Amino acid sequence: MSTSRRFFLRNGAFALAGTTALPGFLVRSVLAQAASVAPTRRLVVIFQRGAADGLNIVVPHREKNYYAMRPSIAIPQSQVLDLDGFFGLHPSLASFKPLYDQGHLAIVHAVGSPDMTRSHFDAQDFMESGTPGNKSTRDGWLNRALQAEDLRRHASHTAFRAVALSADVPLTLAGQIPAIALNNVNNFAVGGRGPTSSPAASAFEAMYGSSGDRIFHTAGEETFDAVQMLRAADPSQYAPANGAAYPASEFGSNMRQIAQLLKANLGVEAAFTDVTGWDTHQNQGSVNGQLANRLRDFSDSIAAFWRDMGDSAEDITLVTMSEFGRTARENGTGGTDHGHANVMFVLGGHVRGGKVYGRWPGLDNDQLNQGRDLALTTDYRQVLGEVVATSLGANNLGLVFPGAAITPNRFLRLA
Fold first, then answer.
1. What is the pTM for the complete model shown?
2. What domains sit in the chain, N to C, each tagged with a CATH number?
3. pLDDT at position 183 over 60
């Protein structure tokens, strides 16, 4: 395989394929030079598609009406993993408890989009675009955050600046900054939303060859080298560090590969993936069942990622979201229907964790949104605005979330 010396020196991507064929002194030298261009902070975004049930994820176990409204699916108080005497985790989130206790994991409750739609498709688009209620937005909040970042934090950008572990580039990452979508490290697409019709190499060539941006044009040659390294790597041979054990699931695989990409010093600043299976209209379950199984995979995959990253986790921020929550009352089929406010997790080395943030609105009947849902008290853009400001240096929040008036004085002080 032909790989340019310049690419080795600037990106250290050989780490993805292993270094056993290179002399130790050369490996150390190249890694040291590669580290000099690695982003100082990285952001990982996880979208829980399908509307997760925040009330059974982070349980308000001291709310009497919670148990009255959910006679068959409520989490018994004796099995809730207590956090602060009022809130507690679903028992399937046991791997999150140490992260919370260590101060790495923060929780925001009664958070979500101010738009009142109960359509999965509209709500997901609104959350990903960062412009609730506006269907005309064609780019995503995370792409705009990369445009708004403090360029002094990064000496250079690579083709792997924005990566999605998904079949297509999601709306969250669509926009002016080129993004890469990978199903796995040997199969990828490039560009905007939708499948890539041409072979991957042609897509790279078209995108970078026609670009008027000097930085991205220069990166094209190195990108082809990166592609060769990605294809030469065997994901099955990647060995997670620190005893991390990822679940044998699609989401577990995605988190494993994000760790792999971040460790490879490819210049990843923002990584995105999603996880489905949250639309629990029927047979949701309580301590066990459909939601419990999804939560176990969700939390175990994220906890494995955190362990795998080791000391590098200090400079990573991970945030989760879902398009809306579920109804406060269970329905007649042992499930929950489309609701409103929800819960978000923020994990990171610089996060002030060990706390549930946000103003709790209560679950009395007269406190519910439209008499049926957890009411919204925190706009999700406040959380994301703080996250991108602290992790990416995106200080122009008017560009990231137009019309939202997100300013530092509205931050929850998560970091």
1. 0.85
2. 42-196+243-410 (3.40.720)
3. yes
